[in-house]
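Appendix B. Chain record.
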Amino acid sequence: MPDLGALWGAGTGTSSELQQDIAGYLALHTLMRTMSLPTGTGLRWPCRILWSEQPRFGVFGHVIRRSAIPVRSLLCGGRLSLYDPAVMIEEDRMRFASFTRNGQAVWGLASDEGLTAVTGDIAEIYPTMKSAIAASALADIGATLAGQPVDVGLEDASYLPPIDDPDKILCVGLNYHEHRLEGGHGEVENPTIFVRFSNAQIGHNQPMLRPPETHTLDYEAELAVVIGKPGRRITEADAFDHVAGYSCYNDGSVRAFQRHTTQFTPGKNFIGTGGFGPVLVTPDDIPDLERVTVSCRVNGTVMQHAEVADMIFPIPRLIAYISTFTALAPGDVIATGTPGGVGSRRDPQVWLQQGDVCEIDISGVGVLRNPVVDEGKGA
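Structure tokens predicted for this chain:
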């Protein structure tokens, strides 16, 4: 086996030569992995090897992981260079979902082709996504499931919330400037935190229930952060080391009950109002978190839209603050707040009705869709 360190070289020469070295190294690295040979580091799995007739270069640097990199790998004078035929390496995104199969709750890898459930020994050791997160096993399980036949198509699946059994669901109120202003709230020094219960959550495509007690069901598009590494009194500098992934969240709110007192809990915990999913996306699939957009559509009309950069308290601050008063555990969910444009602050007010379709669209993460159904009635 060639010495990868020697082949990598010092990276001297023109920019084009360096790009060729990088591409060639990645091609060899991938091929060695495919043949179950020892490899170095620098590329997360799984990867697909595709053949193309024409060579073309992808983007290098921090987004190299997202690139389709054509390379023609040949050892040439101790360097890796590019020659025909072109090999294109495209890394698969790491996305995971929880769903039901044959009436049983399962979880597994989500790909463009569909959902592949964990089975056998893996399922016995890691029966839930939360258990795999706690063991830092998501990447290895994803590599094992990559390329296996799918169990169900993406549109045919019966989704559960990605983390169906979180220890804690911590929600952040008034964390976007526009939302704070539309409600007439002043500036604060610390984030507003309240909790949700797991039985208030629903998965992708599951009905969002409008209760009979009041018509004031509202939408709230939010980015959900799922904790991977446990911790207490986590510093802002270390906060992202504790993140397992991201998902879409609809912090559906029954406003009348939310405003009975100064405590939000009743209005945030009606059964079947908190949409969560459809997938968990690992952090390295989000190269620029600040530029991620958070949007809500009702029946196709955009009601909310903002960037993560617009948050008043950014994610590291939230993790640091929350972990001061409680220990964060693997699988804990932090719903990071909603942009302006909620229905209750519009004129006239907009409330979700039977037959509406509410979509939470977070760029690079996915689209969470839930039809609105009056509780006790069908869709």
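Further analysis of this model is presented in Appendix C.
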